[in-house]
Amino acid sequence: MFTFKWKRIGLIAGLSLSLIAAGCGQDNTDDTTNDAESGGDGTNVGEEVDYTITGIEPGAGITEATDNALKEYENLAGWEQQNSSTTAMLTALADAIENEEPIVIAGWSPHFKFAKYDLKYLEDPKGVYGDVEYISTIVRKGLKEEKPEAYKILDRFHWETEDMESVMLAAQDMEFEKAAQQWVDENQEKVAEWTKGVEPVDGTSIELVLTPWDTERSSAHVAKIVLEEQGFEVKLTPVDPSIMFQAIAEGDGDASLAPWLPATHGAFYEKFEGEFEDLGENLKGAKIGLVVPTYMDIDSIEDLKPAE
């Protein structure tokens, strides 16, 4: 459905593969320097990371939230967010952890990085990043009447943070399609709850709109497999968050399992509210914020110091 409309509503978000440089520590035995390398009390962390928060794509909700944090926290004066891609952020994070160097990233969960590394969120006293969030399912108006069997499955689709993270972690060693199939094969009881009483269809098409990040790839690919097992022909279309809401609101896509609410995508939700149907949460416990390795001895955004 999108083939002829993308030129009208915007560009599909692409993923840049350029790398973000991580801050480098010095290897010596001076107590002050070692304190800075481990995070210390925040005094020298800024210098070690060049007063830079390692971010992801410019169109992400967490990117906008981090821009707001830079404005709201006076102690972040002189700091900047360096944006490139999720891949670049993860590369910088892996390099920093391998060398036990300081790094501050714009992070979110569910994500496999929390299963792979020892990480922690910095406290957010001003509440810029909001409370714990949920991921919702939205569908275009009329889907229930036109494709009732797909509607039933999407309305029932709900899983846990651990489920999503297991797919993301497996996808580091295989294609997302295979990682999702592996999860479906290992969780037939849960899948059966989603498909109970659903009548098979014969090639009915359905388009799922997602944002181009691993969390949304996980849910979209699992839903795709489950729908295909019921006879649907499923197309996945990755787009920028603002376009995701517009696509469902205007009927250019059928459904999305990707909205993070109430904060991350709240502005987009409000812009198109009433023009789509919200089926409610498909995952609880989502969270965004500034993240650091646990070896860094800082606990709050307010522990970071302004640039000199």
UniProtKB/TrEMBL annotation:
Keyword Isomerase: no
Organism of this sequence: Salinibacillus kushneri
Entry annotated with the keyword Membrane: yes
Transmembrane segments annotated in the record for this chain: none
Domain ABC-type glycine betaine transport system substrate-binding intervals: 44-186, 205-305
Gene Ontology CC: ATP-binding cassette (ABC) transporter complex
Region ranges (Disordered): 27-46
Signal peptide range: 1-21
Protein's UniProt name: Glycine betaine/proline transport system substrate-binding protein
Record-level GO BP terms: choline transport; glycine betaine transport
Keyword annotations from UniProtKB, A to Z: Cell membrane, Membrane, Signal, Transport
Coiled-coil residues: none
GO molecular function, one term: carnitine transmembrane transporter activity
